[in-house]
Amino acid sequence: KNEVEQSPQNLTAQEGEFITINCSYSVGISALHWLQQHPGGGIVSLFMLSSGKKKHGRLIATINIQEKHSSLHITASHPRDSAVYICAVPQGGSEKLVFGKGTKLTVNP
Amino acid sequence: GAVVSQHPSWVICKSGTSVKIECRSLDFQATTMFWYRQFPKQSLMLMATSNEGSKATYEQGVEKDKFLINHASLTLSTLTVTSAHPEDSSFYICSSQGASYEQYFGPGTRLTVT
């Protein structure tokens, strides 16, 4: 079974700061997901990536398959970025996902 | 990215009644849909996997007679919580997977059973 570790668990930043959230997993995968969950509970799929880097607006996701590690970066953070960020990977040999415990980000104005 | 919708976004029901939650993939055909449950301050937990036209596969500990899943078309899956009890109050989330194996998540449905 794939084990997923996210760090940090909680992160507080000032508006405008550069944010990095990390995710490590134990078993080689085909792709990794980054999700965003707002306080109301709704989940947004941010990225699915299998190699290299993807960018969408102020969000950048990178993955290193050899090191089994991914990072999610937020540039010029804003209070509306405050949410829980979750990474998820396949459960090794299955399409089922295993989820990290999430990183709670708070961006203060 | 693809869009997945859920309806309703929130529902309050009385104990003993049944509630149906719909999950629709709006712009692609979902060969597989997943249903998750999330209790407060916890991670998403997979409840079941459903493939279009076949019976759902439930995770250990999930009662298939209580959580009825129907995946009658490539764009719609439904989860019915039968004889709901307060302990079923939770956030229910679906995700849809197409032929490319990308998964897209719905916004979730918050169920409160009184």
Short characterization:
The complex is a heterodimer of chains A (109) and B (114). Helix content of chain A is 0%, strand content 58%.
CA radius of gyration of chain B: 13 Å
Terminal CA distance of chain A reads: 40 Å
Bin the strand percentage of chain B.
Answer: over 45%
Q: What integer value in Å does the Rg of chain A equal?
A: 13 Å
Assembly classification: heterodimer
Give the overall shape of chain A.
Answer: globular
How would you sum up this structure, described in words?
The complex is a heterodimer of chains A (109) and B (114). Chain A has 109 residues and is an all-beta fold. Helix content of chain A is 0%, strand content 58%. In chain A, strands 2, 4, 5, 9, 10 and 11 form a 6-stranded mixed sheet that branches. In chain B, strand 9 and strand 10 form a beta hairpin. Chain B is globular and about 40 Å long. In chain B, the strands form 2 sheets. In chain B, strands 2, 4, 5, 6, 9, 10 and 11 form a 7-stranded mixed sheet that branches. Chain B has a 4-stranded antiparallel sheet with strand order 1-3-8-7, with no helix packed on it. Chain B is mostly beta strands and 114 residues long. Chain A binds chain B through residues 30-31, 33, 35, 41-45, 48, 86, 88, 95-97, 99-102, and chain B through 1, 32, 34, 38, 43-44, 46, 49, 91, 93, 95, 97, 101-108, 110.
